[in-house]
Amino acid sequence: MLMRLIPVFKGFDFFPHDLNLPFMKFKGPALALSIIAMLVSIGLIGVKGLNYGVDFKGGSLIELKTKSGNADISALREKLNGIGVGNVQIQEFGSPDDVLVRLEEQPGGEAAQQAALKKVVDATSDTYVERRVEVVGPAVSSELRMTGFIAVAAGILAIVAYVWFRFEWQFALGAVLALSHDVIVTVGIFALFQFEFDLSTVAALLTILGYSVNDTVVVSDRIRENLRKFKKMELNQLLNLSINETLSRTILTGMTALAVLISLYVFGGEVIRNFNLAMLLGVVIGTYSSIFIAAPLLGYLGVKRDWSDMAAKAVAASKTKAKA
């Protein structure tokens, strides 16, 4: 009786089961566009450079809150530019009555930095309350830059080793190119628009690597299955079939991640905004690379069909041996 009261929900297919979009038809232009995007990104990073946060370039960060009303950023900027502490960056931080002040590293060492901080606090004490202060020295910031780079590089190498061990070297090469594309283009966009690049951005890049390789492994797994299933199918046709068969999962996973990230970007506040921005870019770029880079590259590299036969035979032999 109770079961009759529970409505029956039928699943809704966003993508037809017989979907056959011609992805391989556009693999040449897509790869060319990706190469151009990577070269432009590298050029932007080299020419414009990254807008490093206090984590990576050293300096001080002060969070101030107004005693009453909203913060007047233009008046605060005019006041702080006149106290002789060099370049000062000021931005609203989460709410209209909260501001974040960034001071560049002062010549003269730690004593000069502390003196500059005192000047800022004294100049704003009449209308603002100091909430927190962070100071990063030049030696620490340089070390953080290097360890951040090593972390991203090590993440890519570890993922390549995993894909190579699980599949074949062609899959690993496609994965490393797709992952490198995701990281380089994302960082290039940060360089183009001079978004702040700090430790949270590095954390986002590492998260992007994990998200992107997850998509790549799913597509690669389906390609391997189809290599065993369709022995005589033309390779480009097989790759196209594999991408279409996993397209629903790829797009829906990406849309779900984007829905969460957009909500966090809008409502999450300034503290995690750089992380969310890098993740938003990375999910979009990573979804694109899984479809248009990692899989199509296998068509150029040429996956050996006898490898799939040997793998199947090895599995069958191991099962026979286990039964014996």
Structural description of this entry:
- The chain has 324 residues and is α+β, with helices and mostly antiparallel strands.
- It is built from 11 helices and 6 strands.
- The strands form 2 sheets. The protein has a 4-stranded antiparallel sheet.
Alpha-carbon Rg, integer:
26 Å
- The coarse overall form would be elongated
Mean of pLDDT: 81
- Let me know the largest β-sheet: 4 strands, antiparallel
Number of helices: 11
Order of helices and strands: HHEHEHEEHEHHEHHHH
Estimate percent helicity: 55-70%
Summarize the structure.
By secondary structure, the protein is α+β, with helices and mostly antiparallel strands.
Summarize this structure as a short list of keywords or feature phrases.
alpha+beta; elongated; single chain; four-stranded antiparallel β-sheet; 324 residues; two-stranded parallel ribbon
Helices and strands in order:
Blueprint: H1 2-5, H2 27-47, E1 51-52, H3 54-57, E2 59-66, H4 73-81, E3 88-93, E4 95-103, H5 110-124, E5 128-136, H6 138-166, H7 169-193, E6 196-197, H8 199-229, H9 235-267, H10 273-301, H11 305-323
Helix pairs in contact: 2-7, 2-10, 6-7, 6-8, 7-8, 7-10, 8-9, 8-10, 8-11, 9-10
